[in-house]
Amino acid sequence: MDDYRLIADEIAAAITGGRLRPGQRLPTQRAFARSRGIANSTAGRVYRELARRGLTTGEVGRGTFVRAGHGAAGRASGGAGGDQVALAEPAGAPVDLELNYPAVPQLSGLLATALAPLLRADALGAALAPVGAAGTGAARQAFAELVSDGSREVAGEELLFAGNGRQAIAAALSALVPPGHRLGVEALTYPVVKAVAQRLGITLVPLAVDEHGLLPDAVAAAHRVAPLRAVYVQPRLQNPLGGSLPYERTAALAEELRRLDLWAVEDAVWSFLRPESTALAALAPERTVLVDSLSKRLAPGLTTGFAVVPAALRERVAGALRSGGWAPSGFALEAAVRWIGDGTLAAVTTAKRADAAARQQLAREVLAGQRVRADPCSYYLWWELPAAWRAETFVAAAARAGIAVTPAAAFAADPRRSPSAVRVALASPPLPVLGRALETLAQIARGAAAEWVE
Description:
CATH architecture of the largest domain: 3-Layer(aba) Sandwich
Distance between the termini: 32 Å
Helix content: 40-55%
Oligomer: single chain
CATH class of the largest domain: Alpha Beta
């Protein structure tokens, strides 16, 4: 084993053993090298190894800090492997503001009514038959109507299906970006994309964003440095920042894709909360794979992922779905067709839009005076912490109060450049519980951070 890994093991043991606490700042690499009697280059390798294991995070202009690596925060950051599989399993904290599972009181009754006919023996037998990536004729028709809007009419043959949205994203990236090649992503991006890219051997390239989202010029600048194969982007209700691209910015991004001959994977999973916004796929349909699912619109336990795929990519994406074993569940697909057809999905969507707005209003009231960024339509907010706090320390303090939130490092495409911020998910707890949890977080933010760090 290389010497730098032995040193990294020693520091890792101090972190996992609690001798180095979440939020504690490590020495500069130069100071660390002097204290250990090693070369600066070796110290750099130690720090990179600790970041790779998910044990430390770098904050721009502030240094390297120990991450909140245990409990809820540890699950948020993806554990020792360093790949952000966060947000994939419930955190188990008394108040979960880490995962977003929107639900409305009438949901179970609405879903049960549509499922009842499907449970008859004849219908159930058909629904339990295997289904390929192309789905069924009924599914293609229903989902085409769901995705079509005033800006674009989608044909059934453009659709492919997966078990969930993550699988659809993985298939699109697998089809578009060979191992070792570069994928442009927003500098703060969906954590699962980071994990998928790592497993596929794809190199992530962070792209600059502002309060609205991705900057088209950043795509061109990164492509000039070394060619990108594709861009993963969330133009509507970007996770975690919550911004949405104005029409002019979306159109500019579409033109950059054409000019640079680049593909885009558009993640539209939260777009149902802002239906008036324009999809990138509507302006550059020949360059964009639009990926969505029903996990947020309906419920995560019985979901279907789907993708609107340009004709030139259809066989490649379908092959990736088949080889990955990511075909949809026939039962879930048939249930979704019924929920779309009988108006259940539309009713639930309307209720969730009202619910998200109510939760955002509550958050604005409780967190007044804090540096919070959020769309009033969304189920999450981005909280830039007071100067006294660092993200990992705040996450640890929140966890001690029984509240799980997600540190910025979980979303940072470059683990060395992570702001002092957290994402707060608003969807899961009942409104009264959410209000009390936000009040607790506000009290923590107004307090002293020093007591949480040795």
